[in-house]
Amino acid sequence: MRFVATADLKPGMILGRKIHTRNKATLLERGVELTPKFIARLKKDGYLGAYITDSFSKDIKVEEAVSEKTIEAAIDAVASVDIDGIMQAASNLIMEISSMEEISLDLLDIRSFDDYTYHHTVNVAIYAVAVAIKMGLSINELNEVAIAALCHDLGKIRIDPMILNKKDRLTDAEFDEIRRHPQYSYELISSNPVVNLKIRMAVLSHHENENGSGYPYGKTGEEIPLYAKIIHAVDVFDALTSNRPYKDPCPPVEALEYLIGGAGILFDITVVETVQTVIPPYPPGMDVILSNGERAVVTGHTTQSLRPRIKIYETGKEVDLSSDLRYRMVFIKDSGYLMKESISGIDTKNGASDEGRERKQILVVDDSKISLDQTRSALQDEYDITTLESGAACLKYLEVKGAPDLLIMDIDMPEMDGLSTVETIRATHQDLAVVFLTAIANRDTVLRCNKVGAKDYILKPVNPIYLRERIEIALDKNMDR
Ligand SMILES: [Fe+2]
Ligand SMILES: [Fe+2]
Q: Which ligand neighbours the alpha carbon of 207 most closely?
């Protein structure tokens, strides 16, 4: 079977996996032939896509790490805040994942908008357990990680769904309310004596970042418990790859790139390294476009995660990208759910389109031409970019042209460095959003950036995918839920 994005589903396609709703009702059974009505329903409910089976893809096996039965039971337990059920679900997840010959989480979760929270929670638990097994945690610890992961967002039931699913920009008060959910989760489970302190602390700390920019306490590095570090990284991975009312999903390869870009800043480095060993960037069943223009579907793993086995659509030829010398110069250029649409320019997001939305203005200040070019090329498709080469030029620019929507500022510059430039700017522009670029990652730098009211700081050399996501978050906190 292979994965087909909702926008690409056609009447007559046969489902390779059943699709269900939260109330365990099966929406569509495996083997069902899709009709225009079914497809319209999947679109309306915000399903990412579906696994379909056809003669072309009949040999592609998409291994499920955890049985549907266990997933359903876990979702039920989480939805009804049933701690005994959650503990049972945790041990079932561990049993099934650890029985895999080689742990690889290949199956994409296609959940609808409405089912997001519970599916998300169970996905996070599956990823977290896989990472924890790879990191060599004991069975006792695995249990604690799994329970914490299943409980991490329980507190969201206290938050108004209107806020959780709001498509528009959140108000500050709404955003603060969302940021209270780790505490809400902590309070919900703390009344239960079987949930120990390690589990509670993991739940409370799952939005803390390595550099202290997270919440609720702004803990850093060693202060953050390992379980929370694991849950944090896979939580973000799952949020990025899912379809939400307010954002398009990233393909796994991009979400992994984001984690790599944030390693040591937002996420624990060892955890990110381990995530890469259990989540394939190109899972079997996913469509890819090669650098030679050929379209293919991934059919299986090889020893090199970025060069899987594939089958070319046009010729039906199977190629092992890790060993086929005729393809040694060819690489995967694009993958994911929305490729066709992004190529033809059709927007799949419920008719919402970029057109008419004003492009945001970003000013980039950096003394290195190479660095300016890298930043520009990562961002210019989405934003209007102006580049300047010194702090003095930046001050002048602001005086003459006024403030842009966002300022990206290098720290290390001759004469006036980035931090002093922003200090000066603050006298006249208190609210200007600033993101620092720096080659140095240490606590002192972060504290100094925070002191001048920085939204974020990003390590050089910049990883384009990481940079794009962080800039989007800096411009619109909606993304950082
Ligand atoms: Fe959360
Ligand atoms: Fe979460």
A: 1
Write the DSSP string, 80-149.
TT-HHHHHHHHHHHHHHHHTSSS----PPP---STTHHHHHHHHHHHHHHHHHHHTT--HHHHHHHHHHH
Assess if residue 344 is contained within a domain. Answer: no
Q: Which ligand is nearest to the CA of 149?
A: 2
Mean pLDDT of all residues in 362-372: 92
Res 481 pLDDT > 70 = no
Which residues constitute the domain of residue 314?
287-335
246 and 108 fall within a common domain = yes
pTM: 0.84
CA distance 131 to 123: 12
242 CA to middle of ligand 1, Å? 14
Q: In which order are the strands placed within the sheet that holds 332-335?
A: 318-320, 309-312, 295-300, 287-290, 332-335
What are the structure tokens assigned to 89, written together?
């679900």
Give the number of whichever ligand sits closest to the CA of residue 155: 1
Beta carbons of 236 and 259 less than 8 angstroms apart: yes
CA of 283 to the centre of ligand 2 (A): 22
Pairing between β-strand 361-365 and β-strand 406-410 as defined by DSSP bridges:
parallel
The Å distance, Cα 64 to ligand 1 centre, comes to 25
Tokens of 467: 């940079």
Q: Report the pLDDT averaged over residues 390-398.
A: 94
Does residue 341 carry a pLDDT above 50? no
pLDDT at 114 over 90: no
pLDDT of residue 349: 42
Query: For 238-252, what is the mean pLDDT?
Result: 83
Distance of CA 430 to the CA centre of its chain: 31
* Residue 270: DSSP 8-state: H
Alpha-carbon separation of residue 111 from 20, 33, 310 (angstroms): 8, 19, 26
Q: Write out pLDDT tens, residues 19-50.
A: 876 565 667 888 889 999 989 988 888 888 88
Protein residues near ligand 1, an ion, with CB under 5 A: 153
Residue 323 and residue 376 in one domain = no
- How high is the pLDDT of residue 346? 35
Q: Are 135 and 103 in contact (CB under 8 A)?
A: no
Say whether both 450 and 396 belong to one domain: yes
Confidence of residue 232 (pLDDT cuts 50, 70, 90): very high
**Rounded to the nearest whole angstrom, what is the distance from the C-alpha of residue 266 to the centroid of ligand 1?**
14
